[in-house]
Amino acid sequence: MGITILTRSNSSIGFTRAVSGWAVAIGLATLVASCGEQKQAGGPPPPAVTVALPVKRTVSDFDEYVGRFTAINSVEVRARVSGYLDSVDFKDGQLVKQGDLLFTIDKRPFQNSVDQARATLTQARSNLAFAESDFQRGQQLVQDKTITSQVFEQRSQAYRNAQAAVAGAEAAVKQAELDLEFTELRAPMAGRIGDRRVSPGNLVTGGSGGTTTLLATVVSTDPIHFEFTFDEASYLRYERLARTGQEDITSRNAGVEVALKLIDEKDFGHKGRMDFIDNVIDRATGTIRGRAVVPNPNGVFTPGMFARVRVPASSPYEGLLVPDVAIGSEQVRKYVLVVDDTGTARQKYVTLGQLVGDLRVIKEGVAANDRVVINGLARVRPGQKVTAQEQQAAPKPSAANTAAPANKTD
After folding, report:
1. What angle do CA 184, 185, 188 make, to 5 degrees?
2. Same structural domain for residues 201 and 77?
3. CA dist 118 to 131, 158, 356, Å?
4. Does 68 map to a domain?
5. What residues are paired with 105 via a beta bridge?
6. Do 207 and 170 sit in the same domain of this protein?
7. What is the domain extent for residue 160?
8. Looking at residue 302, which CATH number applies to its domain?
9. What is the CATH number of the domain that holds 343?
10. Cβ of 312: how many Cβ atoms within 10 Å?
């Protein structure tokens, strides 16, 4: 009996220990679950974002194109007379004025031709004086029947021949003097001259044939042309807008103002005016050529230099602008996040316009009273609660950044 009682006692103790272990485990599980529920019930705070209302501003749409500067006038300096080059009277690449001496051809042969022509003229005038006096005497003698009519006609013919000889000698003198003048090659216009193509001492071939010697080239610099091409669709858009009375749009007769910037500049700080649009569209490229006149008082613009031009594409209108950093991308679509009255971020797809400084024109998709997320866009998902902090509108951009291209063509 003692053994049996002892056995029952050990079983009770084991059972008691097992029950206690299960109770501890259940208690720990309950505690962990309770902590998790408390943690889940609290949750992280809503992300903080900065919001601002769209900026209202009068803007205009612009198209941007790439083009080159070209000289309004370009002249190849070639000799009109042949001879040996005596001197070069300019420095390569310098600015020249109209009439400045550029080259000198050996004058001595031409001076001799002038002297010879003048001597021939003197002889012809002497013969004319004798023939004139002989003709005047013959007029009286033929009236007195002293000489026959045939003799008088001979004297008349001699007088007319002498007159023609004098006229021919005078023309020869003028031509000789002109050839002598052509030995000095002067700048036909103001501009910048290139480098010399011929050194002194070389034979220069002149005249009007195709074998004349090219000595240098001169291009005008101020003002200067800027040529660019734009597509047929843009051309039609410009013409239709211009016909509605919007004369500030590019057209054949508008002469509107355009802005340019060089490849190392950020702003369109140079102004010009349209002066020409071609009369045909290139069949190969489907583009048409436009041209603007740009002042170049400092000579910075050089023919052949690349630049970008900004052309008006619409009349001024009231637009809504948001910071460009507020624009998100979803594949090919653009969107912004706006915070509604409940503090929830909502996604709105937008149509973008041009960039004005750091602001982007929104054509469609937002309203003037939308609170647009401009900071913290990456921390927010559509439909999520946020803590919105208001921010004032962006400052007005500088005059150089009041507009930018809506359509870019490279």
Report:
1. 135
2. yes
3. 20, 22, 74
4. yes
5. 85
6. no
7. 107-182
8. 2.40.30.170
9. 2.40.420.20
10. 23
The residue among 161, 77, 45, 174 whose CA lies nearest residue 117 is 174
* Domain end point (choices 295, 312, 329): 312
Q: Do 295 and 322 lie in a common domain?
A: no
- Verdict on whether the full-model pTM lies above 0.90: no
What's the CA gap between 328 and 141, in Å, rounded?
114
Residue by residue, pLDDT tens for the chain (410 residues) are 344 444 444 444 444 444 455 444 555 555 444 445 444 445 678 888 888 888 888 888 888 899 999 999 999 999 999 999 999 999 999 999 999 999 999 999 999 999 999 999 999 999 999 988 888 888 878 777 777 878 888 888 988 999 999 999 999 999 999 999 999 999 999 999 999 999 999 999 988 777 889 999 999 998 999 999 999 888 888 888 777 655 555 556 667 888 999 998 888 889 999 888 888 999 999 999 999 999 998 888 999 999 999 888 777 788 888 888 888 888 888 998 988 888 888 889 998 888 887 888 888 888 888 888 888 888 888 888 888 888 765 555 444 444 444 444 44
What letter would DSSP give residue 399? G
Q: How many CA atoms within 13 Å lie on the side-chain side of 241?
A: 19
* Gap between the Cα atoms of 163 and 159, Å rounded: 6
- Residue 227 and residue 197 share a domain: no
Q: Are 363 and 352 in contact (CB under 8 A)?
A: yes
Residues 6 or more apart in contact with residue 361 via CB below 8 angstroms: 59, 319, 320, 321, 352, 353, 354, 355, 406
A 10 A CB-CB count for 406 gives 20
What single-letter amino acid sits at 60?
Answer: S
Q: Read off the CATH number of the domain in which 167 is found.
A: 1.10.287.470
Q: What angle, rounded to 10 degrees, do the helices at 108-143 and 149-181 form?
A: 160
Residues 98 and 193 in one domain: yes
**What is the total count of domains within the chain?**
4
Count other C-beta atoms under 10 Å from residue 77's C-beta: 20
CA distances from residue 106 to 63, 85, 110, 126, 196 in whole angstroms, order as listed: 56, 6, 8, 32, 17
Structure tokens at 259: 């802005």
